[in-house]
Task: inverse folding
């Protein structure tokens, strides 16, 4: 089974039925997989804070939401995470491509990578880092944990997890 | 008319509907005029009322009215293409367009100058975009509710705020009673 299929299977098994995405090359397979599932309403957003707003509304409407985005989005969404998701105590699994880690070909991505975990730590956001494919075995438990505690939870997935960029 | 006069006039229409209200003075005014469990007050996060409202409308069947502002739409302009391309016929976005950032001291926004939000919404692909004058808000909103289709209403009105108390209700209480009202 492909890793993208396994990830989306875990979302569906945990009743996640509303997913917003801002694309990343590394996440393309997962986003394609989300699109194939009739159980999930996929709503692409133009910016990650907009996506978190959509997720907040969907949650209050009775759906379990999730967001798929790049780690650069942590810089974009701090205010939203703090004053909406955390302040109103809402669950939000965040599947994040961790750009700027080992095997990264684009130097600028490293500039945000070096701040990613520090920012998540400062925001007291539970953070999990998938580095090898077997790390994804915990996704099901992480999703259950997220909807148990009503918090945003970060799942960082680096280039090694996704098998690199193919040309290195 | 200023925003608070419009809200006072349409309060009887809003009372039985799910309402997502914009951050700052708009929420304070609605809270003071007619607090309801069906009102979701934004205490922070400028710009996201329309996104929260759209997510809510897509997730459940009851009508959702978002009370937004021109400044907040300008902050989150990307919301309009998302709304246009994810049609929820139970969704009404009402933009109180007073051409100013009311909560921060009535500094002018660009919608009081060259920018037309109704034209932007139409260019983004939104259907049923209606621009109306303040005094006509109630009739236009009622018609939109009865129409059963997604609407974007841009209400042109005067700049100004009523002096209302800050909302001291805990955010989790606001969210919890709102979710109970949604589910009831």
Result:
């Amino acid at each position: 089974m492909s890793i993208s299929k396994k990830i989306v299977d875990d979302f569906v098994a945990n009743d996640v039925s509303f997913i917003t995405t801002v694309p990343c090359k590394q996440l393309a397979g997962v986003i394609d997989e989300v699109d194939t599932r009739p159980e999930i309403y996929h709503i692409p957003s133009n910016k990650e804070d907009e996506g978190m707003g959509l997720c907040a509304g969907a949650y209050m409407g009775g759906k379990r939401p999730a967001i798929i985005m790049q780690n650069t989005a942590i810089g974009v969404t701090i205010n939203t995470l703090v004053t909406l998701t955390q302040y109103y105590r809402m669950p939000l699994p965040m599947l994040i491509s961790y750009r700027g880690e080992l095997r990264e070909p684009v130097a600028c991505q490293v500039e945000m990578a070096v701040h990613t975990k520090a920012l998540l730590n400062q925001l007291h956001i539970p953070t999990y880092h998938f580095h090898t494919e077997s790390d994804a075995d915990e996704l099901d438990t992480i999703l259950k944990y997220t909807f148990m505690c009503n918090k945003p939870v970060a799942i960082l997935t680096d280039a090694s997890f996704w098998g690199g960029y193919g040309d290195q | 008319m200023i925003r608070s006069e419009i809200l006072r006039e349409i309060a009887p229409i809003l009372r039985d509907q799910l309402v997502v209200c914009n951050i700052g003075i708009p929420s304070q005014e609605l809270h003071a005029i007619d607090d309801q469990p069906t009102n979701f007050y934004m205490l922070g996060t400028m710009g996201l009322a329309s996104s929260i409202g759209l997510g809510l409308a897509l997730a459940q069947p009851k009508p959702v009215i978002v009370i937004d502002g021109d400044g907040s739409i300008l902050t989150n302009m990307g919301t309009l293409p998302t709304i246009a391309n994810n049609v929820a016929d139970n969704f009404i976005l009402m933009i109180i367009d007073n051409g100013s950032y009311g909560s921060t001291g009535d500094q002018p926004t660009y919608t009081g100058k060259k920018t037309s939000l109704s034209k932007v919404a139409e260019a983004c692909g939104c259907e049923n975009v209606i621009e109306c004058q303040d005094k006509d808000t109630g009739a236009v909103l009622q018609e939109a509710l009865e129409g059963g289709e997604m609407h974007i209403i841009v209400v042109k009105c005067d700049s100004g705020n009523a002096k209302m108390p800050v909302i001291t209700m805990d955010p989790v209480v606001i969210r919890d009673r709102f979710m109970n009202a949604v589910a009831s």
Observations:
- The two ends of chain A are 24 Å apart (CA to CA).
- The interface with chain B takes residues 18, 41, 43-47, 49-63, 65, 79-80, 82-84, 87-90 of chain A (CB under 8 Å).
- The mean pLDDT of chain A is 96.
